[in-house]
Amino acid sequence: MTEKVTVEDRGAVRVLRINRPEQRNCVDGETAVGIGRAIEAFAADDQARVLVVTGAGELAFCAGADLKNPISLFEHEYLDRAGPMGFARLDPGKPTIAAVNGYCFAGGGELAAWCDIRIAAENAEFGCLSRRWGVPYTDGGTQRFARIMGTGNALYMLTTGARFDARRAYEMGFVQEVVPAGEALGRALELAQTIAGYPNFRGICADRNAVLHGLSLDIDEGLLLEAEMVRPECSSEELLAGLARFAAGARDASPRPPATTAAGDRS
């Protein structure tokens, strides 16, 4: 694994970290290969259940492509199967969470959008800032931004190149939770450990995959897909054990979003 990308296991949770803090964790060809290899390794490892993606340091999650070395993004081995930055077309089939610390610009926003859930520190900033240099979006932004936050917000980001804070990203629906500065990774790990610890994890993956693969289908086709993908997990031994615990009176606590992202506090 290239040192520009590191991985760390914390129980059933794997942390993928872009490790170029002096370059604001921007991605060159070598980094893209590291990202692609890390995603594929996570997908193949049955012991790793949830992937948390973040950037080294507190200044940047990922400031996008390395515009000082752009050619390398179109010459590496993962270009065709994953995209220039090494992730866009890969799907590990398991939950992924972005822990957004600081700058999340351009291709960094595309990387965050690749993840299923986005947790942002209150000092995080977002925007398609590379629009200033004429750079188009080829790592999923034209497809995932609209799916996550609607056509208007996606086009606002992609065409204006506006720079905005974590609160605005939350209001737009791009970010699911905003937490104090320095706490994005901790909160992402907390949620990841919760997800990884649920019984019948195959059922979680089936729900996730049905959502993502059903986005391009009409409702009837989507419901058929749901039945095909999810229904087989409704008879697992772990599910039956969980139902027995419920019947016996178990009531485990559910995670709650921090108060700062409550519906009445979006100022």
What descriptive keywords fit this protein?
267 residues; alpha/beta; 2-enoyl-CoA Hydratase, Chain A, domain 1; 6-stranded mixed β-sheet; 4-stranded mixed β-sheet; 39% helix
What is the beta-strand fraction?
15-25%
Strand order of the largest sheet: 1-2-3-5-7-10
Radius of gyration: 19 Å
Briefly, what CATH class of the largest domain? Alpha Beta
Kindly give the count of domains: 2
> What distance separates the N and C termini?
42 Å
Q: Outline the biggest β-sheet.
A: 6 strands, mixed
Q: Helical percent range? A: 25-40%
- The tally of strands reads 10
Helix and strand succession?
Answer: EEHEEHEEHEEHHEHEHHHH
Task: Could you tell me the CATH topology label of the largest domain.
Answer: 2-enoyl-CoA Hydratase, Chain A, domain 1
Short description:
With 267 residues, this protein is α/β, with parallel strands linked by helices.
Report on the structure:
The protein has 267 residues and is an alpha/beta fold. The protein has two domains: 191 residues, 2-enoyl-CoA Hydratase, Chain A, domain 1, CATH 3.90.226; 49 residues. The protein is built from ten helices and ten strands. It has a six-stranded mixed beta sheet, with helices on both faces. α1 links the parallel β2 and β3. α3 packs across α4 and α4 crosses α5. It is globular. The chain starts with a strand and ends in a 20-residue tail after the last helix.
